[in-house]
Design brief:
The protein is an alpha+beta fold.
Length: 168
């Protein structure tokens, strides 16, 4: 159960604040809803209290887990990614993985897209997915670790930047 003014995470949307718990009459049945305002895009969601866990509404990760995820991102710049399937199949796979309530899963999508982007230009859809993954990961990590989200994003873009080409 969540409380008013608590920060939560809604999958594929990011960090939000519970602005209240409303009761609505739907088809003659009283239903309670969390009213969640997503910070990144100012969208308001109404999440049924009875269904909150099923849709993935969750508390922010712990500081320890957030630090472990950030450390993994910082250390995993040389991981190998096998983008063997075509961009369309990768796009569908990544889209599904971004809906995961597990921040570590979303972080892996971000890392893979950053690494793939080193070797080749990402498609428009992949760039959108990378931006979404970056928003989800940096938003939660910045909140939990009390960091500047912009600085965190810049750091990640810098450490995953392609090596400068040697011109002769």
């Amino acid at each position: 159960m969540f409380t008013t003014d608590e920060l939560v995470v809604y999958p594929a949307q990011g960090v939000g604040k519970i602005e209240g718990i409303d009761c609505k009459d739907i088809g003659g049945v009283a239903c309670e809803f969390y009213v969640v305002r997503i910070r990144g895009n100012n969208i308001t969601l109404m999440v049924p209290v009875s269904n909150a866990a099923h849709v993935g509404l969750r508390h922010l990760v712990t500081a320890e887990k957030a630090q472990a995820i950030l450390d993994s991102l910082r250390a995993g710049t040389q991981k190998t990614v096998h983008p063997g399937q075509n961009w369309n199949r990768r796009f569908r796979e990544y889209s599904e993985r971004l809906k995961s309530p597990d921040l570590a899963e979303v972080m892996e999508v971000l890392r893979e897209l950053l690494i793939v982007g080193r070797a080749k230009e990402l498609s428009f859809g992949e760039r959108r997915l990378q931006e979404q993954a970056m928003n989800l990961v940096s938003g939660e990590l910045a909140e939990v670790l009390n960091l500047s989200e912009a600085d965190l994003r810049n750091e990640l873009h810098e450490i995953y930047a392609p090596s400068p080409s040697v011109t002769t």
